[in-house]
Amino acid sequence: MKKYIIEMDPSQIKNFNLDYQQLFEEFDYIEGRKLLKLDFKNNRKILVLDIHLKPNKVLSKSYADGNFKILEVLQSKRVIHTCLVSLNFSQTPFSGNKLNEKMLSLFDDIIFDLPFFGNKSKFTFSLISENIHLDQFISQLHKYGTLRLVSVQKPNQSNEDLLDSLTPRQRDAILLAKNHGYYEWPRKMNASQLAEYMNITKSTLVEHLRKAENALMHQILIGF
């Protein structure tokens, strides 16, 4: 059994009913907390998401022409809202039509897992299965867009466990830093710009990032 973490560029995803560009005009990013149900009969995915709104945006009940519906807001902290969400995928490679029968036949052997993450530039999801099933599934998925294999892990490794070691502000800071290119070279956003975006001081941001980095490094290097 292996766990594949895969990235797709939303702008290159073909035949998807969900308008990602519209979605991320409102959201900075979405992050999966728990996948509750894949409903192939009604072409729906039910999951718990953290929705990070862009500044000055207000959470609505529905987005992307009704294909992204917020069923319930479970918790709200500043711009981050933990929500029960229904995603319609009636025009995706996961929908039940004849063109996708080969794709659907593989679902009995595939487990969808976390991380599940999306922003304007990438869509990340995770699959667990035997190598042969994963390779067949990815081969079919290549027909719908460009894929990048980010990581191959043992199924018991959990990114969620790593992030659970952070405080909410540390988690928010390090995810925003990553998604806005703070860790790239050259940096797309520096500490001052990121602090202004988060409406905190630069020294507070740097403190959050250092503590988050130390906590993550400690978790990763346990036993070494």
Describe this structure in words.
By secondary structure, the chain is an alpha+beta fold. The protein folds into 2 domains: 2-153, no CATH class; 165-220, Orthogonal Bundle (Arc Repressor Mutant, subunit A), CATH 1.10.10. Helices cover 30% and strands 33% of the residues. The chain contains 7 helices and 9 strands, in the order E-H-E-E-E-E-E-H-E-E-H-E-H-H-H-H. A hairpin with a 2-residue loop joins strand 5 and strand 6. It is globular. The mean pLDDT is 80.
| Global outline | globular
The portion of residues assigned to helices is 25-40%
Which structural class should the secondary elements be placed in?
Answer: alpha+beta
Q: Main sheet: which strands, in order across?
A: 4-5-6-3-2-7-8-1-9
Q: Which sheet architecture does the biggest sheet show?
A: 9 strands, antiparallel
What is the number of helical segments per DSSP (H or I, 4+ residues)?
Answer: 7
Low-pLDDT parts are none
In whole angstroms, how far apart are the ends? Answer: 24 Å
CA radius of gyration: 18 Å
Q: In total, how many domains does the architecture comprise?
A: 2
Taken as a percent bin, the fraction of beta residues is 25-35%
Number of beta strands: 9
Can you write the helix and strand succession as a string? EHEEEEEHEEHEHHHH
| Mean pLDDT level | 80
Summarize the SSE layout with pairings:
Elements: E1 2-8, H1 20-26, E2 27-39, E3 44-53, E4 62-63, E5 68-77, E6 80-88, H2 101-105, E7 111-118, E8 123-129, H3 131-141, E9 147-153, H4 159-163, H5 168-179, H6 191-198, H7 202-220
Antiparallel strand pairs: 1-8, 1-9, 2-3, 2-7, 3-6, 4-5, 5-6, 7-8
